[in-house]
Design a protein that fits this description.
With 858 residues, the protein is an alpha/beta fold. The protein folds into six domains: 2-101, MutS, DNA mismatch repair protein, domain I; 120-249, Nucleotidyltransferase, domain 5 (2-Layer Sandwich); 283-390 and 529-555, MutS, DNA mismatch repair protein, Chain A, domain 3 (Orthogonal Bundle), CATH 1.10.1420; 421-519, MutS, DNA mismatch repair protein, Chain A, domain 3, CATH 1.10.1420.10; 561-772, P-loop containing nucleotide triphosphate hydrolases (Rossmann fold), CATH 3.40.50; 778-839, no CATH class. The chain is built from 29 helices and 27 strands. A seven-stranded mixed β-sheet has the order 13-23-24-25-21-26-27, sandwiched between helices. The protein has a six-stranded mixed β-sheet with strand order 3-4-2-1-5-6, with helices on both faces. A six-stranded mixed β-sheet has the order 11-10-7-8-9-12, sandwiched between helices. α6 packs across α7 (219-234), α14 (352-375) runs antiparallel to α15 (378-386) and α26 crosses α27. The radius of gyration is 38 Å and the shape is elongated. The two termini are 76 Å apart. Residues 653-659 and 813-820 have low confidence and may be disordered.
């Protein structure tokens, strides 16, 4: 316990798994937490001054399963192993922490989500600039950026790191800028210095300067990157060969999607239960690394024409050749998660079975390379040139590894036969023992002339030769007698003794040789990390493009025409997520949208609730985003002038934990849009101003529309959905604003939503109709209609809303039985009015009363 307490003191914030024999044990508070999270038994031992000590443990071979649960529960876990063999020491075994696993520093398959990265981020606060870096230890990806708080916030929201490290003294600033949604850890300020960062990075990459990576000018970013490496060293992760490069995130290469847009368009996650995201609809990838790249492409669409056209051209080529598509997919499916697999080699945590998977992946890469070469397509030609099947190391793995090795090295039988003479000899002894014993038995029986000679084994004196008393006079002099039985004698020979020593020590020696040879093999593979990482990146790219081609064929997407113009012209557009969720046989109602900077910059969309205004806004944003990712789009045709920023203000949600109302959240998001617009922005506004009073809301919405129209430097393309029909008046004074509405059809008392966008404004919201559809009580619906009619009549007569409401209230206070025009009461009134009391018999009166009672109960 002294040893435990000394180690625990060095890792106060971590849950310490302490190796004792074949178990990992936890003590005290750690044991209480562990038992609770893992659902294992909590025991108590001893009667010290503080009472009994809590214990909870599990077998060492179950570490992977239990570790994943602890890390997912947000625990930092220090793994303390025995550093020497208990057989070699008479004192207490040396122990030390070999690894500290945290939510952001994990690589185990059980801990990680296959389809998303596991980023550790570091944020550095300089005076006016913030630096940020992201590393995924499980893939070797290392990214760096710097900018203002808004840009860093956008990156953190997009990359969703599992852990963020920052300066201890900047807690207040961190919470103010980025909120409390991240798992965080703070470090002392000394780690956040420029000199230390440059030193640790140049030492890691074995270079004199960072110029070769193109990050040397990002000084705040470099400090954040240095902190990431420092933190990895602190958590006992020093085998980081697979982190072989650092890349900058270039803001000017990608479309600006602020965190509101990523959330509102439900690109990769959704605040709503059972909602389907764009990522889930588009993800038809065959490998986990392809899925992770698709995620990045969604949150970082391109805004440069050349790479967009290259991607679209490649998708078009694959769409036209479905057999090629199938050939590629057949091989790519077999490659698996090559990116994480090769990272385990760098971490020196790769198992024999995983090395075998690497070998198979290299065979399939060779096939992909040859298929790509045969196509004569320029893009695929470049891909084929860069793919490297690493024949030398593949042949070495083929030759030296067993065909079907175990998952763990300690299980043995990992290295193939015929590679090491000593290993083969020991295996023959350990596993071919019976044959060897039969050989000895035959030889000795022949040389001594004792036909009944037997070789056997017991725990007292090992292997022996047994001779019946009939033949004991034939026993050679150099045999040593060990035991006399009633009917036989037992002897040992120097040869048997030597063989016994060999067979008993063979398995231990086999393990030592296999571990040595396996480590040598792993070291040889680690020389190919960079080439295999490039293979993984190229295969992931091809995987995503194949996924886009499959989507285009399956969902009838078309190739968009992306250009440098200012117009956005979508004909027959559909919402990619909603159309996938429609019931079988139901067709999605398509819509056209045209926006440009000269004639139709802002479209005001009015129309009933539930008619599909929000869907039209969102689908326009998603179609633009998909086109600039390089994906075909759900439309009949789409001509898209490059967009550099997509802003959305959709839906309402309180942020009560920060003391912000719905309206405050709405105004914050809208302010963020208006302060960042550009000439090539696309803005999607839904129901601006509805969080406050009607007049305030109309005034704000009106002023926003004017601001966007009259902006001196930018004419952002805008879709503005609203309930405020008064905004339709803007068209009379603003030349580039046009009115559209989502049409409906009234049949009797029913409203049919046609979900079609047509020119012209709308005067009616049909909110009461939606309330009826939601199952509101009939009495309430009737009353709401009654109030609406009265308010509308008064409005046409020039009365104010305030006076009309007072009038309606006064009517409600009149308590005469039939003053309120309830349909049930009207029915009863009519029923009584039609009675002739003079000719009514008592029985008929009772029957009538019974009828009225039934009407009331309906």
């Amino acid at each position: 316990m002294q040893q435990y307490n000394a180690i625990k003191a060095k890792y106060p914030g971590a849950l310490l798994l302490f190796r004792v024999g074949d178990f990992y044990e936890t003590f005290g508070e750690d044991a209480v937490k562990t038992a609770q999270i893992l659902g294992i038994v909590l025991t108590r031992r001893g009667t010290g001054p503080n009472g009994a000590l809590e214990l909870a443990g599990f077998p060492h071979h179950s570490l992977d399963n239990y570790l994943s649960k602890l890390v997912r529960a947000g625990q930092r876990v220090a793994i303390c192993d025995q550093l020497e063999d208990p057989k070699t020491t008479k004192t207490i075994v040396k122990r030390g922490v070999t690894e500290l696993i945290t939510p952001g520093v994990a690589y185990g398959d059980n801990i990680l989500n296959q389809k998303s990265n596991n980023y550790l981020a570091a944020v550095y606060f300089e005076k006016n600039t913030l630096g940020v870096s992201f590393v995924d230890i499980s893939t070797g990806e290392f990214l760096v950026a710097q900018g203002d708080a808004e840009y860093i916030d956008k990156l953190l929201q997009g990359f969703k790191p599992n852990e963020v490290v920052y300066q201890k003294t900047k807690r207040k600033e961190f919470l103010e800028f980025f909120g409390d949604k991240f798992y965080t850890f703070h470090l002392d300020d000394w780690a956040f210095t420029s000199d230390y960062a440059n030193e640790i990075l140049t030492k890691h990459f074995e270079v004199n300067s960072l110029k070769g990576f193109g990050v040397d000018k990002l000084q705040a970013g470099i400090v954040a990157a240095g902190v990431v490496l420092h933190y990895l060293n602190d958590t006992e992760h020093r085998n980081l060969k697979h982190i072989s490069a650092i890349s900058r995130l270039e803001e000017d290469k990608y479309v600006w999607l602020d965190r509101f847009t990523i959330r509102n368009l439900e690109l990769v996650s959704s605040p709503h239960d059972n909602a389907v995201t764009l990522f889930e609809v588009l993800d038809q990838t065959s490998t986990p690394m392809g899925a992770r790249l698709l995620y990045k492409w969604i949150i970082m669409p391109l805004k440069e024409l050349k790479p967009i056209k290259e991607r679209l051209g490649m998708v078009e080529y694959l769409v036209k050749d479905e057999s090629l598509l199938e050939s590629f997919n057949n091989h790519i499916k077999q490659i698996g998660d090559l990116e994480r697999l090769i990272s385990k080699v760098g971490l020196q945590r790769v198992g024999p079975r995983e090395l075998c998977a690497l070998k198979r992946a290299l065979y399939h890469i060779e096939s992909v390379k040859s298929i790509a070469e045969e196509t004569k397509n320029p893009f695929l030609g470049v891909l084929a040139e860069q793919l490297n099947p690493c024949l030398t190391i593949r042949e070495k793995l083929e030759r030296e590894l067993q065909q079907d090795p175990p998952a763990l090295l300690i299980k043995g039988n990992v290295i193939a036969d015929g590679i090491d003479e000593e290993l083969d000899r020991l295996r023959k002894i350990a596993f071919g023992g019976k044959d060897y014993l039969v050989e000895i038995q035959k030889r000795e029986a022949a040389s001594t002339g004792i036909p009944s000679l037997k070789v056997a084994f017991n725990n007292v004196f090992g292997y022996y030769l047994e001779v019946t008393h009939t033949h004991k006079d034939k026993v050679p002099e150099d045999w040593i007698r060990k035991q006399t039985l009633v009917s036989a004698e037992r002897y040992i020979t120097p040869e048997l003794k030597e063989y016994e020593e060999q067979i008993l020590g063979a398995e231990e020696k086999i393990q030592v040789i296999e571990v040595r040879m396996y480590n040598e093999l792993m070291f040889k593979v680690s020389a190919y990390i960079k080439q295999i990482q490039l293979n993984a990146f190229l295969i992931a790219q091809l995987d995503v493009l194949l996924c886009f081609a499959q989507l285009a064929i399956k969902n009838h997407y078309v190739k968009p025409e992306v250009n440098n113009g200012m117009a956005l012209d979508i004909k027959g557009g559909r919402h990619p997520v909603i159309e996938r969720r429609l019931p079988v046989g139901e067709e999605y109602i398509t819509n056209d949208v045209f926006l440009d900077n000269e004639t139709q910059q802002i479209i005001i969309i009015t129309g009933p609730n539930m008619s599909g205004k929000s869907a039209i806004l969102r689908q326009t944003g998603l179609i633009v985003l998909m086109a600039q990712m390089g994906c075909f789009v759900p439309a009949k045709t789409a001509a898209i002038g490059l967009v550099d920023k997509i802003f959305t203000r959709v839906g309402a949600s309180d942020n009560l934990s920060s003391g912000e109302s719905t309206f405050m959240v709405e105004m914050n998001e809208t302010a963020s849009i208006l302060n960042n617009i550009s000439d090539k922005s696309l803005i999607l506004l839904d129901e601006i101003g509805r969080g406050t009073s009607t007049y305030d809301g109309i005034s704000i919405a009106w002023a926003i529309a004017e601001f966007l129209h009259q902006h001196p430097t930018a004419k952002p393309k805008t879709l503005f959905a609203t309930h405020y029909h008064e905004l339709n008046e803007l068209v009379n004074t603003m030349g580039r604003i046009k009115n559209f509405n989502v049409s409906i059809k009234e049949v009797g008392n029913r409203v049919i939503f046609l979900r079609k966008l047509v020119p012209g404004g709308s005067e009616h919201s049909f909110g009461i109709h939606v309330a009826k559809m939601a199952g509101m009580p009939p009495k309430l619906i009737y009353r709401a209609n009654e109030i609406l009619k009265k308010l509308e009549i008064d409005r046409t007569e020039g009365q104010s809303i305030k006076d009309s409401i007072k009038k309606v209230q006064n009517q409600a206070y009149q308590l005469q039985m039939f003053a309120v025009e309830d349909p049930v009461l009207i029915k009863i009134r009519d029923s009584i009015n039609n009675l002739d009391v003079n000719i009514l018999t008592p029985v008929e009166a009772l029957l009538k009363l019974d009828e009225i009672q039934r009407i009331i109960k309906q």
